[in-house]
C-alpha cells in the first residue's frame, strides 16, 4: 500500500481537505485507485454532537456515521462511498484502547500513549487503507490520509507519533508527505514571506516527519525566488514546492496541481513508475470551463440560523452548484438569517429585518436546510409561507420540510397553535413529533441515520418524475423528529400531498403542494449524495423551477445518471430558444405557471435544445 499524508502548518483552515481531494483526483486521472482517511484529533467520538459553528456541517455517510465535512469533499471529488472507519478521531481510538484494557488484551502491561495508542492508530490506518471505496474488488493503490488541525497542536501528538512510526515501518518508497502551509503577504512590505513555512517545517521535522512536497497557500501565484528560498531553507527540491494560490472555484485545484506536474514528485517518491499513467483530466477541465463561462444568474435564498459560517451549509451549497452548472446557470446564493425574518427582529433591529426580507424577496428560489433547536424557526416558517403563497420554488430539507408542514397546518388548516414538539412540547396540534424509537437520554448516534429507502405513493408527483418514475429511492437521513402520522389524513385532505413514505407506509418522506409550481419537502438530505455530474434530482428540479423551466426536466420519462459525468434526459428535453437555457429570472415566469404543476406556459423550441446538449452534464438520448 502506498500512503500520501497531508498535514497543515502555520494556521488552520488552509484547505487541507480540498488539497487532499484534489490530489486524489489527480492520482485517479493517472489510473490509480484511491481511498481516503480523515484524522480528527478531538476527543469527540464523532462529529454528530458538534455545533456547525465549530467545524462546519456534519456530513452523513451511507452507513449512518456522522463525520467531518472533509469526507463530503472526498466523496464529491473522488466519486467514492466512504464508511465510518474512514474517519478516525481521538475519541474512537481512546474508546478502543480502553475497551481492550478492560477485556485484558494488554496482559497486565501498563497502557501508555506509546506503544498502545500509537499502535491502535497504525492498525486502524493499515486496515482501512485496504478496503475499496470505489465499488471494485481488491485493495486500492493509494491511501490519502489527512491529519486535521495544525502541526504542533497538543491533541495531534499521538497521531504524529503514530504516522512517524508508520512512515518508518512501510519504508520511504511507500510514504509521501505533503505539507500544506501558508505564505502570507504583509501589506506593509507587499512581499511573500517564507518564515512561517520555515518554522512549520522545523516543527514537523521535530515530530519525526519530513515533507517530500510543500504545498504553499497564498493569495497569488508563488514567486520563483520564494520557491528557491523555501527549497534552500527547507531542504525540499524546487520542483516539489507547489503554488496553491486562491482561485474563485475549488474545481480549479486539480488542474492547478496538474499544470505544476504535481503527479511527478508523488510518483517519484512512491516509486509508481510503470504503474501510474499520464494524468488525463479532460472531462474535469471541460466541467470547469463550462462553470467559468456561465453568465445568466439564478438566485437562491438559503434560509437558516448558521449563516455566519458558510461551511455550515457546505453540502447544500455544493448541490446547488452542481445543479446550476448542469442547467447552464451561474449560481448566486444568498444566506438569509432566519431569526432576522421574525417580527421580534423588526422591533429590535429594523435594518437587519429589512435586509433579510429583501434577500428573500429577491430570490428565484428558496431552500430551507436541516437544523436543530428553536432559534430562528419562526423565521423559517415565515419563509416557507412566503414561498408557498407567492409561488416561489421551494425545497425544504429535514427541518425545512417540517417547518413547511407546520406552516401549512397553521395557514391552510387554520391551526395557529400547530407546531413541533421539539419547539413546543405542550402544543395542542403537534404536526411534528419525536420518533418512537429515538433516545431521550443520549444525543450522539441516536437519530435515524444513513441510507434509508423511500417509496413513491404519488406516481405523478413532481418528485417522482424528477427521480425518473422509480418505485423507490435511497437517500441519507439525519433526524429524530417526523411528521405526525395522526395528522396525516387532515393535512392530506387540505391539499398537502405525501408523495413518498418509508417501507411501513406510515413515515412521511416527501411532501408536496400540488397546487404550487414547485413546493417540495424531503425528510432526507439529498445534498449528501450530489456529485459533479451526478446531480441530485430535487436540487436540479429546484434550479429548473427557479429558472421558470421545470418542464425541461419533467418532460423526460426518466432522468438517468451515469458514471461518465452526464445527466441523460429523454428525447423531449427542451430549452428556452430566446435566453439560452432558461430565462434566469423567476418573477414573470412564475405568474405564467398553471397551478396543476404539470405545464408551464413557456413555449420552448427544439432550436436551443442543442445548447443544452452541448453541456457535458447533459446528453440527449
From TrEMBL:
It catalyses: UTP + L-glutamine + ATP + H2O = CTP + L-glutamate + ADP + phosphate + 2 H(+). Pfam families: CTP_synth_N, GATase. Keywords: ATP-binding, Glutamine amidotransferase, Ligase, Nucleotide-binding, Pyrimidine biosynthesis. GO terms for biological process: 'de novo' CTP biosynthetic process; CTP biosynthetic process; pyrimidine nucleobase biosynthetic process. GO terms for molecular function: ATP binding; CTP synthase activity; identical protein binding. Residues 309-543 form the Glutamine amidotransferase domain. It is an enzyme of class 6 (ligase). It comes from the Eukaryota. Residues 2-272 form the CTP synthase N-terminal domain. Catalyzes the ATP-dependent amination of UTP to CTP with either L-glutamine or ammonia as the source of nitrogen. Belongs to the CTP synthase family. This is CTP synthase. It comes from Brassica napus.
